[in-house]
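Customer escalation, tier 2.

The customer says the design service returned an amino acid string that "doesn't look like it belongs to this structure." They asked us to rerun it and document both sides in this ticket. The original structure tokens are below, unchanged.
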């Protein structure tokens, strides 16, 4: 009887994936996150290339063409407003302003919140108590109230509005960063860096900050949506970007007097604000799930 050959080769195993590849795989498996990412890319692209896509100058007035309805003319596919300005062009250029405010406000929020959270979590003690009690005090006031109080005394420009929104919404980020740093500062790699004589700022910026990048990135994505919404609030109330410059918020303000007769002037910017907030929220949720190893979402 002949011997049956036995294979001694080991079973094929899945190739080792890097951390970035694992996050990308988990993110792609999150359908709503992918939909949010596509929506964000479309909105940002349309705003970025508004000068090439917009059919008209958004500030050009033609009173002979007031209140044209959508699809009434190929030259004005989304109609015109009360001054005969092209609605599509104003939506595209308004997206530039609203998204720019959202991104600059997010960067301000993340920078302030991360620095405060790093200092509070790393040093602890009286510094932690003082900073966190200051955070708790600010959180007692509604953000919209803080926005309106500060905006009433500051000239409304894109930069000033962005800074106001950013400097009134960093408190939650500081709490997230503090909680992460308070845990990580006791880890062996931090103790080793301290033993080699690394300075406190080097430990915070080189050792701790990269290890909290994932939750900070998720918070940053969600903060863009919040900032866009806040800009719409204050512009709707008359404290935001001023005409003739268009933003989705002041387009809503201008349309409120005509909502009964020309509702599309309010509906169109409202839809874009909704899609923007939804897109960034879905994107943030997907990133949060992708970096959380406790969730089993791999296909």
């Amino acid at each position: 009887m002949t011997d049956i050959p036995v294979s001694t080769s080991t079973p094929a195993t899945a190739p080792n994936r890097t951390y970035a590849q694992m996050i990308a795989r988990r993110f792609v498996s999150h359908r709503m996150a992918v939909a949010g990412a596509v929506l964000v890319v479309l909105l940002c692209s349309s705003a970025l290339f508004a000068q090439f896509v917009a059919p008209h100058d958004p500030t050009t007035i033609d009173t002979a063409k007031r209140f044209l309805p959508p699809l009434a003319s190929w030259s004005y596919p989304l109609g015109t407003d009360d001054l005969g300005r092209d609605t599509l062009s104003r939506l595209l250029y308004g997206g530039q302003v609203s998204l720019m405010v959202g991104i600059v406000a997010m960067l301000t929020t993340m920078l302030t919140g991360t620095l405060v959270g790093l200092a509070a979590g790393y040093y602890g003690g009286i510094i932690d108590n003082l900073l966190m009690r200051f955070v708790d005090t600010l959180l007692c006031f509604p953000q919209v109230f803080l926005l309106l109080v500060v905006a009433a005394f500051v000239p409304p420009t894109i930069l000033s509005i962005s800074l106001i929104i950013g400097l009134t919404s960093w408190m939650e980020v500081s709490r997230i960063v503090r909680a992460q740093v308070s845990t990580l500062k006791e880890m062996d790699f931090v103790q080793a860096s301290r033993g080699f004589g690394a300075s406190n700022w080097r430990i915070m910026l080189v050792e701790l900050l990269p290890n909290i990048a994932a939750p900070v990135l998720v918070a940053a994505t969600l903060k863009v949506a919040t900032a866009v919404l806040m800009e719409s609030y204050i512009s709707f109330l008359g404290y935001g970007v001023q005409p003739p410059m268009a933003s989705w918020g002041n387009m809503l303000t201008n349309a409120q007097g005509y909502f009964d007769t020309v509702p599309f002037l309010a509906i169109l910017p409202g839809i874009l604000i909704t899609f923007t907030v939804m897109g960034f929220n879905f994107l943030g949720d997907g990133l949060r799930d992708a970096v959380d190893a406790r969730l089993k979402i791999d296909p």
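Tier 2 assessment: The sequence is consistent with the input. The radius of gyration is 25 Å. The mean pLDDT is 84. Sent an explanation to the customer and offered a walkthrough call.
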